[in-house]
Amino acid sequence: MPACTNPSPAAATTPRFLPLLLVLFFGSGCAALIYEIVWLQLLQLVIGSSAVSLGLLLGTFMGGMCLGSLALARIIPERSHPLRVYACLELGMAALGVAVLFAVPAVGRIYAPFGGQGSTGILLRGVVASVCLLPPTFLMGATLPAISRWVESTAQGMSWLGFFYGGNTAGAVVGCLLVGFYLLRVYDMATATMVAAAINVTVGLAAFGLTLLKREETVVEAEKADPLPAAAGPKLVYLTIALSGMTALVAEVIWTRWLSLILGATVYTFSIILAVFLAGLGLGSMGGSLLARGRARPEIALGWCQLLLAAAMAWAGYMLTSSLPFWPVNPSLAQSPWFTFQLDLARSLWALLPATILWGASFPLALAAVAARGVDPGRLVGKVYAANTVGAILGALVTSLVLVARIGTQNSQRVLIGLSVLSGLIMLISSLRLRASGAFRFAPAAFALCLIVAALGLAVYFIRSVPPVPWQLVAYGRNLNTYDHDRTLVYVGEGLNASVAVTMNNDGVVNFHISGKIEASTDPLDMRLQRMLGHLPALLHPHPRSVLVVGCGAGVTAGSFLTYPEVTNVTICELEPLIPAKITPYFEMLNYDVVHNPRVKIVLDDARHFVLTTHEKYDVITSDPIHPWVKGAATLYTQDYFQLCREHLNPGGVVTQWVPLYESDLPAVKSEIATFFKVFPNGTVWNNNNNDDAGYDTVLLGTAEPLKIDLEQLFRRWQNEPSAAQSLRDVGFISANSLMSTYGGQASDLGPWLAKAQINNDRNLRLQYLAGLAADLTQAPAIADSFLIYRKFPDNIFVGDSPYKDALRRILAPKTKK
């Protein structure tokens, strides 16, 4: 019988050091998650945040880890001291982690002139992601195989690796919460990176220190023995763990999408969801390690894990679509957003924990199932880790690019349940020992048949039980239980990047919903804002010909430019393909059928990426992005983005930017306005007020040159552009003075009000953390009053003498300070 009669000194004394290694792996996981969040956020600024870009980023990130896990055993000899190898990897990650922080902007400058849309653009995005992510993620992937050489390649030894993996994941939970709720909220990406690098250096030096506690310089190679493969066969174990990785990643994408509707798509929500997912994996990994140590046939436990996953995924699907959305929760009642975060954490744990524990348990069980005494542990661990990661890569790419947009989240989850049942059956049936004889020779086959029938029956039941996403959740999101439900559904759809809906009020108002909130509507106040974003820059520019509209939405802003005959080219940049294809046509009577106009070109891409890579310049650039508290939207409110817009203006060009006052607070609004004025020091604010003169939202207008408005010429322009004038009259602007009366102040007047405002730039994305804390607030009137008291009549802007100017002066009389 194969045996190891002369165990290595390392293996003999392993129990003394394993708890210390667990602590080191905890620190390594913490640093890795900090890096991951920072890198993905940093790279999205260069290659965009579309589904294609995110798929490439996730695929590259996990691809690097896969390569590292496979390559270590082939590059580093088994005789090398595992702790020294591990220490070098940690120190290398610290160096590369800091290098990425500086490399991404440099690579971005090289990429910008050549990037674009189409297959070439996708290829270039992949190259950028690979150049920046493959080196450090290669080292990340190599850490577990490196440390695995400190234990024996037995089921018991491999079970310790499950504890390491669990400790690493526990550290990742801490890193996720630390970076999401503190480091990036209070500091910036550079500080977060330095903290992660410091953790890597500490872990690396500690690992070197542990090598000094022993006299042995290397791990003595144990006597080789013939491998004892699992009863199911290693190839089937690799297939099973690959399917497990695939289902985990696909489910994470789907469930994150659903939970972001329920909880609100803030950066804090995504941190909570990721932390819960990782916590479940860590708990499951440690539980699976204990299970593997006490079982002679871990492959059977692995098979049952996959079957139980089908039930756990059905549970999560029901909770996320039919239960949690209807819990009687009113987030606006919370005295602090931190109270809401606690509730969000509880709801996420309730829905996700069962499945994530089972996925976590699958990894150590797979390790134990392929363990064979005398085989290089690094090679075994590398193969299992790589198989799991390859499955996750396929899951990320297929989900991001195909599944959700083609068959929807409901059917995607059904596919996952089917895959879990299939992988469980493969593992269990292949593990049966078909050695019975005599009267019992048919027993294994009979048992296998019964198992198949029972599993398929359960699979059909669970697949049929997955409910659809309620359209009310897509429309109302976190406010589903508190919103006035006076709307009927017109359309609902799940796109590549977001879920969208169109509803109609009882009074005939049509609403466009995206990601759980109303983004545009035919309500008079919304129509005023959408028309202001188009007509203000078009009227104040002497001869607008080319226009870039960021965000299609209802198409009302883009359609406003079609009322000017001299406008020959309108480019609409939209992230979600469903919006111009399905949503905008519902508003065609008010947007002048903009999507079918020959003067209009629609670009389906992240607006930030488009502005970065396009060589075109425009007379007008107008942005109507989603609310800044939505994760990723803050990139369209940064100083760097506004600078890109300024560089893409023709001489005399005008930029307008939407700034909401509702679902926000004073620090967030001040940050948005101050950041805009940092790039456009001649900028102005135009207030979309309602009948009570209370604030609702605003338009920021910026020009490279000082803004000059001759009211006499403006009135002649009004008369010479009858279609444009009628478009404005339709929303309550009866004259040019009526439109000009929305003037709310200029940068020089608002200086004292903005004195302590935080500037939102690419290195900190401060706005998404500020706005995420204020998503449930209703302070719009108070915010408007706070800056309108600084408004003075701008003689430097409204030039010339005319009765129109005198009338406007009376309208804009200074408000009394409170």
If you had to describe this structure to a student in words, what would you say it looks like?
The protein is an alpha/beta fold. It folds into 3 domains: 9-465, MFS general substrate transporter like domains (Growth Hormone, Chain: A); 473-514, no CATH class; 523-811, Vaccinia Virus protein VP39 (Rossmann fold), CATH 3.40.50.150. It has 27 helices and 14 strands. An 8-stranded mixed β-sheet has the order 7-6-5-8-9-11-10-13, with helices on both faces. Helix 5 packs across helix 12 (377-431) and helix 9 packs parallel to helix 11 (337-370). The longest helix has 55 residues, at 377-431. It starts with 8 loop residues before the first helix and ends in a 7-residue tail after the last helix.
Mind telling me which CATH architecture of the largest domain this is?
Up-down Bundle
Report Rg: 30 Å
Largest sheet: 8 strands, mixed
Reported by name, the CATH topology of the largest domain is: Growth Hormone, Chain: A
The chain-level mean pLDDT equals 87
Basic shape: elongated
- What is the count of β-strands? 14
Give the uncertain stretches in residue-range form. Answer: 1-14, 215-231, 434-440
Q: Report helical residue fraction.
A: 55-70%
Number of domains: 3
Strand order of the largest sheet: 7-6-5-8-9-11-10-13
| Secondary structure category | alpha/beta
